[in-house]
Amino acid sequence: MEKLKPSRRFLFIVLTLLLSIGILFIAAEGLVRVLVPQKTFWPISNIYQTVSTPGVSYTLKPHFQGIAFGVDLITNHLGFRGPEWSVEKKTGTFRIALLGDSHAFGYGVPFKDTVGEKLAEILNTRGDGHYEVLNFAVSAYNSQQELAVLRAYALPYHPDLVVVIASNNDDDPTPLVDQDGWLYSGVLSTTPKSPIVDESIQKIQPVTASWLTKHSYLLWYLYLLKRKYQLAQESQPQRQLPHPSTTQDCWLGTVLAGTISDRLFKSVFLPLKTMIHEVKQAGIPIIMANFNAILDYRQLFTYLARTEQVPTLELLTLFPEACSWAELLEQFGLGWNDHLNAAAHQRWAIALADLIVKQGYLTAVK
Prior knowledge:
The chain is of the alpha/beta class. The protein contains eleven helices and eleven strands.
C-alpha cells in the first residue's frame, strides 16, 4: 500500500481530529439537552407562588431547580429553599427552624454558604449529635408572615430551636404575588406597579454573549457556569477600604430599651412577642437576631430581650470595621445588590453558634 505524502497525512490527521471534536461536541450537546433541566438555562425572577395558608401569602415555587439571584436555586415541595425535609427526625438530631426574609434566605449566596447551612456545619463540629437547619425564610417576608410560617410550616417539623432574623422591612405591608409568580412590593393601588426583578439576571445573562453561545445548549451551559462562578468568587472575600473610618464615626452605639414605637407596635412587636410565647409554650427555645441600624428596631429588640428573657443578637455589630451602611456594602456586599456576601453569612453563623453553645442548647440533643 502506497504511503500518504506528508502533506496529505497532515490533512488526514487534521480532518480526523476535527471530525472527532465534532462528534464529541454533538454528543455533549445532546447530553446537556437531555440531562440538564430547562430552567437552568434561563435565570428568572417570577419564582414565587401564592398560597392559601392564612397569613403567609406566598412562598417560592415548589420543586424549582434553576438559576435565581445569581446562584443555583433548589426548592422543596413546600416552596422553601433547600432539599426535601423529613417531618420525622432521626435519633440524635437537633433541628433548628430558621425564619426571616432575604437575609436569612441567603439572597445571592450559594446555598452551602448561607447562614443556615454554615450554622449547621459549625454545630456539627462542636456538638455530639447531628445538627440541621431548615430554612423557612423567603425574600420580603415581614414579621406577620414569619409568625404565620412558624405556625403553619415550622412547628409541624418539631424544631428543637427557632432562630428568627428580622430586618428593617419587617414592618412593610405584605407583598403580593400574581398568577405568573411575580412579586410586587407595597399595597394595591390603581396604578400598575412593576414587579421586583432579580438584578443578577443582567450579570448572569448579558446581551454580549455570542450567537453560537446563545443557540448551543452546551456552550450556553458552560457560559452560565462561568458567570455564576465569577459572581460567587466576587462575593466571597472581604474587601478592605483604602481609608477605613475611625471608631468615632461608627454608626452603631449602645441602645437602651425604651418604649415601642407606634409604627412597629402592631406590625413587628406583637407578631414577634406572639411568636416567642407560642414557641415557649411548645417547650422550644428561641433566639432573636436583628439585622438593623434603625433606632426603634434596636430598641424593640432590646426591650424583648429584657422583658421576654429571650437571647438576642445584633448582626450589624459583628462588623466593627464598617462604620456605615455604605462601608458595610463596600466590604461585605455582593457587589451587584444591597445584600451581604458569603463572608458575612459565615460571621453570622459563628456568632449564632457561639450564642447557642453559651445558652446550653446543644445538651438538648435526643
